[in-house]
């Protein structure tokens, strides 16, 4: 039986690596990109058919309804990164981030789930971030979107599993995919937070350059897809097994200090 998967944001990073790995595992894979017709050959994963998707557009999302109704696997990977002091984040930028990182992926899952439920098989994987579990200053908007995505996943999981459909979250830590070059930044020239903000960004970029590869994350995604009963959460990179264990036994304030010290914020 042919297995089908749709991976969003499949022209770079985790999405492209996941799409390629699913092809290698025998899936028929559709990958999305904002403008598939402009993709260079090196941006395309071999064996993947590319579809247009703009997560800021309801029309673009709904245009995939027929395709999503027949897929066995949906990997909600596409998203944007954002940084800035909480009090200085523009409303328009926040609304866009929640549309791209939360509302768009949720709607795609809603379009895919009825078909999966009727066939009594399916997997929905939300690609989140370890920052949802370990929040960081000046990343509040991004943290909030990834926490929201995990919340939808955890809540829907119980609803879907009786029908053979499993919803799960994969949380990568620091990843070396060049995402730091595409991160939107909002900070006023005279911001009282500017010094700490720049310190955090420099550490964040440093950690990402030393981070794990997109291929490592793709392996975790495919592990979740092919598990008979996927776990609610798969964390990968940034010493995930150790830091999650520490979070279970240490006071929350200690964990908070550890996260901030890793990003050179010592106060």
TrEMBL record:
The keyword Oxidoreductase applies. InterPro entries: NAD(P)-bd_dom_sf, Sc_DH/Rdtase_CS, SDR_fam. One of its GO terms (cellular component) is membrane. One of its GO terms (molecular function) is oxidoreductase activity. CDD domains: 17beta-HSD-like_SDR_c. Keywords: Oxidoreductase. It comes from the Bacteria. Coiled coil: none annotated. It holds the Pfam family adh_short. Belongs to the short-chain dehydrogenases/reductases (SDR) family. PANTHER family: DEHYDROGENASE/REDUCTASE SDR FAMILY MEMBER 7B (PTHR44196), DEHYDROGENASE_REDUCTASE SDR FAMILY MEMBER 7B (PTHR44196:SF1). This is Short-chain dehydrogenase/reductase. The lineage of its organism: Bacteria, Bacillati, Actinomycetota, Actinomycetes, Micromonosporales.
